[in-house]
């Protein structure tokens, strides 16, 4: 039994200290205090249960803020959700390690009054199933399937592909959606909560326009729910590179949780989580920022000698209530759930339009599973139901003068829906895609990087020809071989004018390796020569910088060199 198993517990045993403070400056609009979960221990790792307002300092953008309340929740009942990511945990030893450590955590550290749920995507998550028997059964049924894409069950057989590239994207989206759902369901009430994710991680994979849920959205949902996120990789040894990158670390840091990398002792990680649960405070402070919905950094310090504190790195400000009007539309009549068939590879380009609108260009090519696709019918609508454009488009490199291989229309900045019908010969409907696309603004004061595309020629002759091909289809792959030589295309604008673009190649430690050589422009793209032959296998980054009007914007992308 763990050291916390014999602690007496009751719901009335929560030590609560509320400190009333003077109202804000005269004339300030009242704002809802922001809750922040803290873990506070002494140098030996023991909880400090008697902190008051005088012991805590919190600053936002360097400005000290007033503490509205301090609550110690150490002995209170806890709400714990554990997501076991079978799609991204390897079968065999990694699975056994995860199963044993999670079972031991439940047996040792779950106390009377605690609630715990175990989530195993794609199995349906029921937030009302919180009993220990169901949790233990779910853990015993857990089996990792990383790299194994054979469909299991009717859901996977009907809705998921078995081709590794498309199946990997679908799996990542399913897990992201499950994480966001779990984090959102834990919002009320504020207390001792934790979301524990057991995964070896995954890259975002698909282009951002195809993601309906992102790791950033998961971090926001968890922070708004005031739930710290703990991420545990059950691998016994640390690989050369890991998908648990800065985006994953950001979720843990932003929420006040931790990321335990591959090779970390699993029992030790769960012991640390249990200790955190017993040392939990929730403070509330008066924010200084505007109600703009953005992320705002904070720093928390505890003034007790030898006190160790871990807190979220910031909070998401609420939106002002005045921004929300009563909806007059029934969007369910025209908006559909986003999904991809894997039959085609769509291609969207964004550029400045007229009168503050954005010029959207759509083209497509058959995917590996859709070689018989011949025509795509497209309808574009805004989320307010305004129809923007409808067209029938043949695949790239199969068009005629009467049927161009791309279609262009103007759209207002913001979300739009593309409904795509994929047809084969004799007008046979092969499948449908629904894409929700966020159309960017170009009437900004900073340059906008509209696209960064990897064009992958198959030979030196193709490399020369594709430099001049305005409609060369980019690849979504982010794993390359050392014999590959890519064309990197970047579109960046400040208003209607193109920006100056430079691209640096960085190694795993984010140190500059090379500034990419420039190739002649084509179709409004800046082009760069990205040759891999001189470099070893591993993870690399591209630092893309756009400069115009003395203002700079940058974007960083990752990719990996594999094989020979």
Provide structural commentary.
The model is unreliable at 1-28 and 398-402 (pLDDT under 50). A hairpin with a 2-residue loop joins strand 3 and strand 4 (63-64). Helices cover 17% and strands 35% of the residues. The relative contact order is 0.11. The two termini are 50 Å apart. A five-stranded antiparallel β-sheet has the order 1-5-11-2-13, with no helix packed on it. A five-stranded parallel β-sheet has the order 7-6-8-9-10, with helices on both faces. It is built from eight helices and 31 strands. The radius of gyration is 26 Å and the shape is globular. The chain is α+β, with helices and mostly antiparallel strands. The longest helix is centred in the N-terminal third of the chain and has 22 residues, at 164-185. Helix 5 packs parallel to helix 6.
């Amino acid at each position: 039994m763990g050291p916390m198993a014999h602690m007496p517990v009751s719901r009335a045993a929560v030590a609560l200290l509320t400190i009333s403070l003077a109202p804000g400056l005269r004339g300030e609009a009242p704002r809802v205090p922001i809750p922040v979960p803290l873990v506070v221990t002494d140098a030996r790792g023991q909880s400090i249960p008697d902190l008051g307002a005088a012991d805590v300092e919190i600053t936002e953008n360097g400005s000290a803020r007033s503490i509205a309340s301090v609550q110690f929740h150490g002995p209170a009942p806890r709400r714990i959700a554990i997501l076991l990511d079978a799609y991204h945990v390897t079968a065999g030893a990694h699975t056994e390690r995860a199963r044993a450590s999670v079972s031991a955590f439940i047996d040792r550290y779950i106390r009377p009054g605690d609630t715990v749920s175990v989530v195993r995507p794609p199995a349906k998550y029921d937030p009302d199933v919180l009993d220990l028997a169901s949790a233990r059964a779910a853990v015993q049924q857990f089996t990792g399937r990383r790299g194994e894409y054979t469909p299991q069950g009717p859901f996977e057989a009907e809705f998921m592909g078995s081709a590794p590239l498309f199946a990997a994207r679908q799996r990542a989206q399913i897990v992201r959606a499950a994480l966001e759902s779990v984090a959102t369901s834990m919002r009320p009430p504020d207390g001792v909560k934790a979301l524990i994710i057991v995964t070896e991680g995954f890259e975002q994979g698909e282009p951002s326009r195809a993601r309906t849920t992102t790791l950033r959205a998961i971090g926001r949902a968890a922070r708004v729910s005031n739930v710290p996120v703990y991420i545990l990789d059950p691998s016994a040894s640390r690989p050369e590179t890991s998908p648990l990158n800065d985006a994953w670390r950001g979720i843990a840091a932003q929420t006040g949780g931790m990321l335990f990398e591959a090779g970390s002792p699993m029992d030790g990680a769960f012991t640390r989580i249990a200790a955190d649960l017993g040392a939990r405070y929730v403070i509330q402070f008066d924010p200084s920022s505007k109600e703009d919905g953005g992320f705002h950094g904070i720093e928390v310090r505890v003034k007790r000698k030898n006190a160790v504190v871990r807190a979220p790195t910031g909070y998401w400000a609420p939106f002002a209530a005045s921004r929300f009007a009563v909806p007059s539309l029934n969007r369910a009549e025209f908006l559909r759930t986003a999904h991809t068939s894997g039959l085609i590879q769509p291609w969207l380009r964004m550029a400045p339009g007229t009168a503050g609108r954005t010029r959207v260009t759509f083209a497509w090519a058959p995917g590996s599973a859709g070689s018989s696709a011949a025509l795509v019918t497209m309808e574009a609508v805004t989320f307010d139901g305004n129809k923007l454009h409808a067209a029938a488009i043949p695949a790239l490199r199969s068009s005629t003068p009467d049927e161009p291989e791309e279609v262009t229309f103007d759209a207002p900045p913001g979300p739009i829906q593309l409904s795509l019908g994929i047809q084969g010969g004799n007008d046979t409907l092969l499948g449908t895609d629904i894409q929700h696309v966020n159309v960017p603004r170009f009437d900004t004061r900073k340059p906008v990087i509209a696209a960064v595309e990897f064009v992958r020629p198959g030979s030196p002759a193709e490399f020369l020809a594709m430099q001049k091909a305005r409609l060369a289809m980019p690849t979504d792959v982010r794993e390359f071989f050392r014999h590959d030589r890519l064309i990197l295309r970047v579109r960046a604008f400040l208003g209607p004018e193109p920006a100056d673009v430079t691209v640096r190649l960085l190694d795993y430690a984010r140190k500059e390796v090379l500034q990419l050589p420039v190739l002649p422009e084509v179709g409004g793209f800046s082009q760069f020569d990205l040759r891999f032959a001189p470099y070893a296998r591993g993870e690399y980054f591209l630092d893309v910088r756009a400069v115009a009007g003395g203002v700079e914007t940058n974007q960083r992308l990752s990719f990996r060199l594999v094989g020979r």
